[in-house]
Amino acid sequence: MSNDERPNATVVLRTPDVRVVEYALQAGDAHPWHFHSEVSDTIYCLEGLIGVETRDPPSDVVLRPGEKHNVPVKLVHHVKNAGKGQSRYLLLQGIGTYDYNKVA
Fold first, then answer.
1. Residue 3: helix, strand or coil by DSSP?
2. Dmax of the chain from CA atoms?
3. Contact 50, 62 (CB under 8 A)
4. Partner residues linked to 53 by β-bridges
5. Record: fold of 3-102
6. What integer pLDDT is reported at residue 7 of this predicted model?
7. Contact (Cβ atoms closer than 8 angstroms) between residue 23 and residue 52
8. What's phi and psi for 4, nearest 5 deg?
9. pTM
10. Is the separation of the CB atoms in 82 and 45 below 8 Å?
11. Minimal CB count within 10 Å: which of 13, 31, 42, 91?
C-alpha cells in the first residue's frame, strides 16, 4: 500500500513532479520512519499537534495549526500525532519523482 492509499489520506493534487495529501492522525498514530530520494516534504499543520522527528541530525519539532516544517530530500524522518486528540496536516512534496523508502 502506498503512502497516499492509507484510509487516513486524501489526495489533493498529484502530478508527475508534485504531490499534496491531507492526513488525519488519531492520538498515538505515526507514519513509519522513511525518506524520499528526490522530493522534500513540507508539513503544514491544520489541526491539533503534529510532530516531525528526524534521525540524523536528531530533531523533534512540534507544529501547531498554521505552522510548517520542511524535511529535505534523503533525510530519514517520520510524522506523528503529538497531541491527545485528532490531528490533521497537509503534506506538500516536490519537485521530483515521489518514492517512499521505509527505514527500520
1. helix
2. 36
3. yes
4. 60, 78
5. Jelly Rolls (2.60.120)
6. 66
7. no
8. -95, 10
9. 0.90
10. no
11. 13
Q: How far apart are CA 27 and CA 6, in angstroms?
A: 16
Tens-digit pLDDT string for the chain (104 aa): 345 556 689 999 999 999 999 999 999 999 999 999 999 999 999 999 999 999 999 999 999 999 999 999 999 999 999 999 999 999 999 999 999 999 98
CB 50 within 8 A of CB 60: no
Alpha-carbon span 21 to 92, nearest angstrom: 7
| Dist. CA 46–CA 98, nearest whole Å | 23
Cell of 39: 522530493
Q: What letter represents residue 101's amino acid?
A: N
Closest CA to 47 of 26, 19, 77: 26
Cell of 82: 503529538
